[in-house]
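Co-fold these.
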Amino acid sequence: MSTVTFSSTGPIDRATKDIVRGIELWRIWVRLAYQDIIAKYRRTLLGPFWVAGSTVATSIAIALVYGGLFGLSVKESLPSIAAGILTWTFMVGIVFDAPNILLGASGTILTLPLPITLHFWRFLLRQIFVALHNIIAFIVVMLCVGLGFTIRPEFIPGFMLVSMICIVWALPLGILALRYRDVMFLLGYLAQILFFLTPVFWKPEKLTGKRALFVEFNPFYYMLNLMRNPLLGGAPSAHDWLVGFGLLFTGMAVGFVAFVLYRRRIVFWL
Amino acid sequence: MSDVSIRLQGVELNYTIYSSRAQSLRHVAMDMAVGGRLFKGSGDMVVVRAIDQLSFELNQGDRLGIMGHNGSGKTTLLKIMAGVFDPNRGHIEVRGKISSMIDIGHGADHEANAIDNVKMLAALRQVPNKQIPSLIEEVLEFSDLGAFAYLPIKTYSAGMVMRLLFAVSTSLEPDILLLDEWIGAGDAGFVEKASKRMNDMVHSAKIVVLASHAESLIRSVSNKLLVLDKGRATYFGDCAAYFAERDANAGTAPAPVHTNSPERV
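Predicted complex below.
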């Protein structure tokens, strides 16, 4: 029993320990995420398939209207819209819901000495569970419209990379929104705008001239490619991977700096 | 010779309280626009020193009682020792497995049954997964819930919930036990069972820290005493000696050495 349980050392050391400990305690956040899902859908008959059903219903509605506007049949437009909505919901659910990761765990943060990063992993895993249900619904829809099973193995690394990008960016955004509560509303507002500016339900080639910049400088476009393309039988381009890893590493750097500087204050900002 | 210990050296903790003004971007932008002067000092942020320059050391066998008025920093100090708060200044080092009994019901889900709740509470308190089945068995046996164990805990009476939470929190086997007031529960039959279990837990822990208003309790449990007043220690040392001196002085506590009040920044 000679181990130091904890000790107040420098902020870099404590932030690093929080991150390492957060990973070490994976059994705890796996269990907590699982309990979250169980709790959320208790006493419902369809459970998580309500979420999947909503993704499918939204996709069909958009495919009907926009397919009509762009002169495409539902069968042509539905797959990319359904895969797009599924990917978009997953990304936005993490990046723009970041403030709620910390606020949702405030009771625990104020009572128990668990690492702060543990709550991020718990949240990520919960969102992954939901996304997996959506993917099952997507496969069913694809089989129903007669397009067969289109998912390629690149989906796994793509999905993992997008998950990591979202969660590392959620950390600094979550801290910022916790300190300045306006940011929380700003994020919701941005999510709405970005949904239209990102080629979720339209084709990026349709945007020409200066407007193409909305796509070119939109990080969500590259994340969309990383996760959506392999769902539709394609593959992300080398450029997509490059931008993806760039986003991951900048997110890690920004997140780490923010965490070192503000970790000890998080508990007071809740 | 064991290594279980708690060391605090010049520990200071400030609560920074943000008003809605300080938490809004518009006001930060306005503060910047006016050079950060006009709105400063108009109460956008209040700093309360909850713990001030606290140093002490506890080793195996120590049972520390903490006394002090409401707001004197008892719970804050327990939370620093639990690792929830990082001090602003000073150094703290804790060796040994800690269990804090601050808010023992935290993490309970009222829609879930007793078994799922035990799993959840245990996970939050870092109980290894492989110990959970035996923990469930033990808790169910002790809390005597019978068939209710399979019903959501919102259907329980307050006493039953208390019995469950008490059973879970006392089944952990810490080296260092942090208690915010004594915990007891239940009807006449259970009280005795509970107090025995609580005593066993206190006896088997290597260090116990108990914050309480109940003097008789502190006198019976502690061998060391810390008296807090507005975040400062007015007494630290032998428990029996403090009460002996105080009783000799006809029931008045030794006068506080320092006082400090919340300061505004």
